[in-house]
């Protein structure tokens, strides 16, 4: 039982600090994020799980962060790094909007993310997708991967779970998709990866942004990883219960 406990919770640190070593690891989003342009706006989506090493720190995190009224970012990588960058860009973009006396451009927000990610590329682990709508260029999606590159794409996926859905996106994405088709694509993509990526969760969040409004959607899926977790818990509980009566 002691060996099993050690395998389950990891080695304890030496000295007076008796906390498991995984508590000292950085919180990571363990993510699949995605965004799609359509005629009139964008659809963005993400799963909801954050991790510390192999352990789940939060199952219901919202990785879709508002930057301005019609601009959002999807965050992947270190949760602390991405939240800090999002706060900085939100602050900078707010002042920029006041100076212009109008809503900022999506490309401006993307350039601000690129500047921070590139300047601190040796210190930060942050992969960002910037998406939104402005009156000049309509719906736009910009990818800012780790390292600070910036590229506009009609559809973008990111995060550690994105490797599981590239085939799905290649098969199902088509140019000039409608809003409903993009919603099904994003929802289907996040649903697909929850069946294969054990560090992601069954809740997914999607947002639709147009020139008039923003819609928020939350989907719940049952993945094989969640079924496995429940099965392992039940097996362990039954085994411990039987030992008490031997």
TrEMBL record:
Pfam families given in the database record = Proteasome
CDD domains from the UniProt entry: proteasome_beta_type_6
> What GO terms are given for molecular function?
threonine-type endopeptidase activity
Subcellular localization: Cytoplasm; Nucleus
Record's compositionally biased regions (Basic residues) = 192-221
Lineage here is: Eukaryota, Metazoa, Chordata, Craniata, Vertebrata
Subunit text: The 26S proteasome consists of a 20S proteasome core and two 19S regulatory subunits. The 20S proteasome core is composed of 28 subunits that are arranged in four stacked rings, resulting in a barrel-shaped structure. The two end rings are each formed by seven alpha subunits, and the two central rings are each formed by seven beta subunits. The catalytic chamber with the active sites is on the inside of the barrel. Component of the immunoproteasome, where it displaces the equivalent housekeeping subunit PSMB6. Component of the proteasome complex.
Q: Provide the GO biological process annotations.
A: immune system process; proteolysis involved in protein catabolic process
Give the record's keywords alphabetically. Answer: Cytoplasm, Hydrolase, Immunity, Nucleus, Protease, Proteasome, Threonine protease, Zymogen
**What is the catalytic activity of this protein?**
Cleavage of peptide bonds with very broad specificity
Catalytic residues of the enzyme: 31 (nucleophile)
Which protein family is it in? Belongs to the peptidase T1B family.
Disordered: region residues? 190-221
Q: Does the keyword Transcription regulation apply?
A: no
Q: Under the cellular component aspect of Gene Ontology, which terms does the record hold?
A: cytoplasm; nucleus; proteasome core complex
PANTHER family referenced in this protein's UniProt entry, alphabetically? METALLOPROTEASE TLDD, PROTEASOME SUBUNIT BETA
Q: From which source organism is this entry?
A: Salmo trutta (Brown trout)
The record describes the protein's role as: Component of the proteasome, a multicatalytic proteinase complex which is characterized by its ability to cleave peptides with Arg, Phe, Tyr, Leu, and Glu adjacent to the leaving group at neutral or slightly basic pH. The proteasome has an ATP-dependent proteolytic activity.
The record ties this protein, via InterPro entries, to: Ntn_hydrolases_N, Pept_T1A_subB, Proteasome_bsu_CS, Proteasome_sua/b, Proteasome_suB-type
Q: What is this protein called?
A: Proteasome subunit beta
């Amino acid at each position: 039982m002691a060996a099993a406990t050690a395998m389950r919770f990891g080695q304890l640190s030496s000295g007076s600090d008796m906390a498991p070593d995984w508590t000292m690891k950085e919180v990571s989003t363990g993510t699949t994020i995605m965004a799609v342009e359509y005629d009139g706006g964008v659809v963005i989506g993400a799963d909801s799980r954050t991790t510390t090493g192999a352990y789940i720190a939060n199952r219901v995190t919202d990785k879709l962060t508002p930057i301005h009224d019609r601009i959002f970012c999807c965050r992947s990588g270190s949760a602390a790094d991405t939240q800090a960058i999002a706060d900085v860009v939100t602050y900078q973009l707010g002042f920029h909007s006041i100076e212009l006396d109008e809503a900022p451009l999506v490309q401006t927000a993307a350039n601000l993310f690129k500047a921070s990610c590139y300047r601190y590329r040796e210190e930060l682990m942050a992969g960002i997708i910037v998406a939104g709508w402005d009156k000049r260029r309509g719906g736009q999606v910009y990818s800012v991967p780790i390292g600070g590159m910036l590229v506009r794409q009609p559809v973008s996926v990111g995060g550690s779970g994105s490797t599981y859905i590239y085939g799905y996106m290649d098969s199902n994405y088509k140019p000039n998709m409608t809003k409903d088709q993009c919603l099904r694509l994003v929802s289907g993509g996040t649903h697909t990866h929850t069946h294969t990526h054990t560090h992601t969760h069954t809740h997914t969040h999607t947002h639709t942004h147009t020139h008039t409004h923003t819609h928020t959607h939350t989907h719940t899926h049952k993945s094989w990883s969640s079924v496995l977790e429940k099965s392992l818990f039940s097996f362990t509980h039954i085994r411990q219960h039987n030992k008490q009566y031997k």
